[in-house]
Amino acid sequence: MPKVIALADQQNLVPTEKFDGVKFPFEFFNPVQSRVFEIYKEDANIIVASATASGKTTCIEMLFNHEIKAGGKTIYVSPLKALSQEKIDDWSDESHSFFNTKKSICTGDYRITKDRQEEINESQIIVTTYETLDSKSRNYKSDNVDFITKANILASDELHLLADESRGSKVEVALMKIAEINKKCRHLMLSATMPNVDEVGAWLSKLTDRDTYLIKSDYRPCELVIHYEEYNDDLWKYDFKQKEIVSKAFGKIKAHPEDKFIAFVHTKKAGQLLKQALSEAKINSDFHNADLDKEGRLKLENRFKNDPNFRVIIATSTLSSGINLPSRRVVILGVHCGIKEVSALNIIQECGRAGRPKYDIKGDAHILLPRKKNKIKDEFDYHKMRLQTLPPITSQLVKPDSNDHRGLAFHVINEISQGDITTVEGIYKWYSRTFAAFQQKDLDGRIVDGMVEKLILRGCIKDTDGKLEVTPVGRIAGLFYFSPYDVADLKQNFTALFNNEKEMDEFWISVALAKTDSWGALFASNAELDEMEQFIGKFNNEVRQKFSFGKDVPPQIMKMAFCYYQLLNGWSNPVFEATLRGLRQDVERTVEVLFALNGMAAKWNQNDYLRKLSRKLTYGVDWDLLVLCDIDGIGKVKSQKLWQMGIKSPADVVARPALVKSALGCSDAVLAKVMNNAKELT
Length: 682
Hints:
Distance between the termini: 68 Å
Largest sheet: 8 strands, parallel
Strand content: 5-15%
Oligomer: single chain
């Protein structure tokens, strides 16, 4: 029977020269690393629960090096693309011992081309995210990448993500699937904030049928002091509260003029107000948030590392995990996002960004808490207590007190698609391996029956004499890592679009893309609703009827429709920039789902139209200009220039090279490429 073996720090520090492999830039392993040194070769799992900045990356490198020397494959997985990118960058540096090791990054923003498949299959270190790991593990039979089944070590970073409401189930199910299909793979799990880590270890041992070493450590190379400080929450107007909390944070930053800060905000409004206040005080700062693209965030982080005059990064949760920055202090502007409490685990993660061993010997985190006394509770004391008493990590796969079974359906549909679940009883058997079941969360029959009934009703599965099988809609959901309810919605919406001959109407297209189950669960702020007031007016009775809306159109569906409308027209709007970037990154996958529906389920016979729609969403040009965008190197601006000069097709390009060169202002070499591609198209 596999067991959990509890270990403490090793106080007799091990010289790093004893490690045969990676050359570390320090003389001794610390107490956590020294303990890992004793066990890294053993055929057992390892969980390291230690403070932020306690050197967990070194633990990963010890285990990876051992497997790589033996010719094995390794996987590093994190919750953030930025953290995964940081790891691949560090291990690709010529000063690192992994410099000559074949490695590859596999995240959602990298297309899996044939060359990328070969690169990943040849790599000994694969760096990824939890969502990509889940997607690849569920499609391991059909994918042409084999790292899921061949890896000898899976290093799971920031494992407290198991408790994340929206993403935790994907971590849980990915770990389950890998334990099922790759029994030789050892697991290394790392986290700073897991109060019930013993329970996680016991589940892992049972799941993998392998002993698990559990290292619980209090070691932190930099002392971290957490300060709980109040702001006045008795102000009746929301804007006044925002200004009050920003004023408190500004005062804290100004009181420590020699220190670099990360200021964590939970709303864009607070971030913008703080940036304005710092700018007026001539304190060099910038706002790190989802509106920045990957290149912009990386540039900002490097400035903070290298520019001594750049004092403050204002950040949303984009910087709460893993990224190593020289922030002597952290100030956290409250514990609410709108009316919703920010989880204690997330707040403590943000505190951990203060005081990093490479830069400081001590860190201070200042958490601003509301002081508002009433008959029910003292807000300040309540939040202080919940931050000092972290809740246990709990599975998010099912919500026993809710009829919401989206998360469960998302995973079950794939198991049915793969043939691993064939009956209702099979759902219970599959569930018995989950962390949720290990925590004795019974799978309520009402949840299972409701989920199966809805999947049948939406045309995702069928029940033939008790045997569950996927329909084409369900198979598409599994293949493309899509919610089955969303695939069913897209099928229904685009059928309405084509039946009403509205396929060229950009408003109707936007609604067809937006009216899905997942988008309906999002949030639309008052600022966003104000920004799209005119667009909302387009939702007339015909639209409501054809798309099966009730009396009112949900505001979050209006928001997503407006964002798709902006993509179709090539617009940009700072209020929606983060949402637009996410949609742009997912356009290809969404259109692939539509192509699959066209071929496998709906039989629309609309392949040519869908190709146009894909380019329309990508370039945001008029329909007439799409033919020019087929030419390599011709996008929105260049196609408009060519059109204005009377060049309206690849044939026109071939016939009028001098005019093309004049319109584009390009070199002879670029012109030759454009001409050659235009000839191929004609």
